[in-house]
Amino acid sequence: MDGMENIAELAKSVMNADRRALSQAITLIESSRDDHRIQAMELMDHLRSSDRKAIRVGLSGTPGVGKSTFIESFGTYLTGMGLRVAVLAVDPSSIRSGGSILGDKTRMERLAREPNAYIRPSPSQTHLGGVARRSREAVAICEAAGFDIIFIETVGVGQSETIVSEISDIFLLLIAPAGGDELQGVKRGIMEIADLILVNKADGDLKAAASRTCSDYSSSLMLLRKRVHDPTGFPLAMAISALEEDGLGDVWDKIEELLDWRKAEGWFDNNRTAQSRFWFKEEIRQGLLSMLDDEKVKEEMSALMNMVDNGEIYSSAAAQKILKKYTAKPR
Amino acid sequence: MDGMENIAELAKSVMNADRRALSQAITLIESSRDDHRIQAMELMDHLRSSDRKAIRVGLSGTPGVGKSTFIESFGTYLTGMGLRVAVLAVDPSSIRSGGSILGDKTRMERLAREPNAYIRPSPSQTHLGGVARRSREAVAICEAAGFDIIFIETVGVGQSETIVSEISDIFLLLIAPAGGDELQGVKRGIMEIADLILVNKADGDLKAAASRTCSDYSSSLMLLRKRVHDPTGFPLAMAISALEEDGLGDVWDKIEELLDWRKAEGWFDNNRTAQSRFWFKEEIRQGLLSMLDDEKVKEEMSALMNMVDNGEIYSSAAAQKILKKYTAKPR
User: Fold this and answer.
1) Which CATH number belongs to the domain containing residue A4 in this structure?
2) Does A45 contact chain B (CB < 8 Å)?
3) Does B324 touch chain A (CB under 8 A)?
4) How many contacts, defined by CB atoms under 8 Å, are there between A and B?
5) Contacts of B42 in chain A (CB under 8 A)
6) Mean per-residue pLDDT for B303-329?
7) Are residues A161 and A229 in the same domain?
8) pLDDT at A180
């Protein structure tokens, strides 16, 4: 932690919504260096006391559907109401390859200029399994910094959507107007986690198509089994235009309607509790398996493997050697 | 280990092909008691020195296809040639539920009476993840006891076939005569691991159908990509009648032809090495994850989970507490 004397101070600055501290904090939690991890845990422990709760809005959609335009328009709409908005990204390409396709800070120029908005580019690299932890910690940091709404954006490809939905209070799926046949293209899995389906680009030439697509989705949403954590009428599909800023007020109304109901019925807190438990267990699981990726362990495994090959040791006995060395038997 | 003074003695008796010792040894490795596991590892270490190699024949097929009849007929054919035959079962139901559907000792009465045959009923229960380890150890015990052929039988349902194929030198798929349309019923995955496809029940009314089914499979096997560890002509389909003991000699000829080639070309040993390595790594992976099923660990996780729920600790920090306590950092 260069340039920041102590973590308690950093935490305090974050809670005072100091933007530089905010960025420093997120940079810290993005690091996988051992000493940084220890500091990061200390930081998270300090921030826990803030007890602030933002609305965490997950957002997914295929490339070209207008996610950036939507966040820019909708975010500006929200800051216009005096709300503080943070934008984070979960980049699925970083899960696999270490490359980044999202998070270009310049892509939301108008929103980025808003004093009440904070846009965090997605980190350019990370190690496998760390994406979820890093994203959750970044959300918690923004929450402690007093943001009212936190967008967690991802491109729609399987694993990253699951991560985002397990971090969010509400999940928005952005789609483009399309012919009826293309409706099947949206996987059932994503339909089942979406709370609002926003058919974007309901403007100009595409307005009629957007309206039809919206009706198609409305019909198929009605065929889904009723979810216990939804009030009547949800999940729902709406046609909007991020470009012409049309329908943004309705989106906000629906988000509030859904979350107010969930809060009143206890589902909001229930969901957060379930999410914490999920990630707690998942982090232990990942932590256990990360042993297999450790260079030192790999070296020892390779040496034992040679002994197995030469018939000097039975493979189970060799496996037990590793397990005995690196795990403690619960007692 | 009741009634057996020491493990070295048990190992010696096994290597002398003492049937009682053989059964005792397999009972020992089937136990999941901690002290038995330690003895089992000791036993396996002793048996390693035998350096004997059986032919390990994996066998799969849906219920009713005639697996028991085939093993009975083929096993008796082999013992008739003076070969020693062991029969083990990997029971997929035990993987999930703890129940047993295979391994009824009485179902192969004729083979069971052969002095050179040993049929081991599948254990009635086991814990998840232990099936593969137990099966591998049972195979190694039979091998050390000097059996020439070890059949490892399973009902064809996904996971158990993978386990069996990763234990075997050669994999036989038994199927019933059927109309051409049903050919697609055999999953591509199983076609790809099969070395010989045996169309059983080529007798009486079904003889013509068996012959047609065999041709259909032969054609579709030719469409599979050539496998580097196969000589020309493999994998292949054959029509046989286990009931009328028709074609058994051909099956044995083909098994010998394939394995002789693989031995000469190095693939036989290569495969065994790859299998040892696979199970070595898999056992470590399972061992790491078994932590999550330990009652003591579950209790501590539950206590920490409550603290997470009450906001007394951040979920990552809680996860790290478990990891720190039960794993040793490699250095």
Assistant:
1) 1.20.5.170
2) yes
3) no
4) 151
5) none
6) 91
7) yes
8) 53
| Residues B126, B155 within the same domain | yes
Residues A36 and A72 grouped into a single domain: no
Q: Does residue B273 sit within a domain?
A: no
Q: Which of B242, B265, B288 is the last residue of a domain?
A: B265
B319 at A interface, C-beta within 8 A:
yes
Q: Per the structure, how many domains does chain A have?
A: 2
Mean pLDDT of B4-19: 90
ipTM of the complex: 0.79
The 10s digit of each residue's pLDDT in B194-229 is 999 999 999 999 999 999 999 988 988 888 778 888
Which of A51, A140, A308 minimises the CB distance to B276? A308
Burial of B63 (0-12, 13-18, 19+ CB in 10 A): exposed
Is B193 near chain A, with CB under 8 Å?
A: no
| Same domain (yes/no): A203, A67 | yes
Q: Which residue of B has its CA nearest to A51?
A: B311
HEC profile of chain B: CCCCCCHHHHHHHHHCCCHHHHHHHHHHHHCCCHHHHHHHHHHHHHHHHHCCCCEEEEEEECCCCCHHHHHHHHHHHHHHCCCCEEEEECCHHHHHCCCCCCCCHHHHHHHHHCCCEEECCCCCCCCCCHHHHHHHHHHHHHHHCCCCEEEEEEECCCHHHHHHHCCCCEEEEEECCCCHHHHHHCCHHHHHHCCEEEECCCCHHHHHHHHHHHHHHHHHHHHCCCCCCCCCCCCEEEECECCCCECHHHHHHHHHHHHHHHHHHCHHHHHHHHHHHHHHHHHHHHHHHHHHHCHHHHHHHHHHHHHHHCCCCCHHHHHHHHHHHHECCCC
Name beta bridge partners: B55. B149
Q: List the 240-299 stretch of B: residues with Cβ below 8 A of A.
A: 273, 276-277, 279-281, 283-285, 287-289, 291-292, 294, 296-297
DSSP class of residue A50 equals G
Q: Which residues of A touch B283 (CB under 8 A)?
A: 315-316, 319-320, 323
Interface test with A, best of B49, B316, B321, B329 (most A CBs within 10 A): B316
A285 with B287: Cβ contact below 8 A: no
Asked if B124 and B33 sit in the same domain, the reply is no
Q: Does residue A8 register a pLDDT over 70?
A: yes
**Domain shared by B112 and B11, yes or no:** no
User: Domain boundary at B31, B49, B67, which?
Assistant: B49
pLDDT in the model for residue A54: 95
Query: What is the pLDDT confidence band of residue A97, given thresholds at 50, 70 and 90?
Result: very low
Interface residue B140 vs chain A (CB under 8 A): yes
User: Residue B330 is nearest to which of A294, A315, A316, comparing CB atoms?
Assistant: A294
Looking at residue B143, which CATH number applies to its domain? 3.40.50.300
> pTM above the 0.90 mark?
no
Considering the domain boundaries, does residue A200 fall inside one?
Answer: yes
Domain that holds residue B11: 1-49
Asked if A142 and A25 sit in the same domain, the reply is no
Which residues in chain A touch residue B316, judged by CB atoms under 8 angstroms apart? 41, 44, 133, 136-137, 279-280, 283
Task: Report the DSSP pairing between strands B236-239 and B196-199.
Answer: parallel
pLDDT above 60: residue A128: no
Where do runs of H (alpha helix) occur along A151-266?
Answer: 159-165, 188-193, 207-223, 248-265
Q: Do B280 and A133 touch (CB under 8 A)?
A: no
Asked if residue B254 and residue B178 are part of one domain, the reply reads: yes
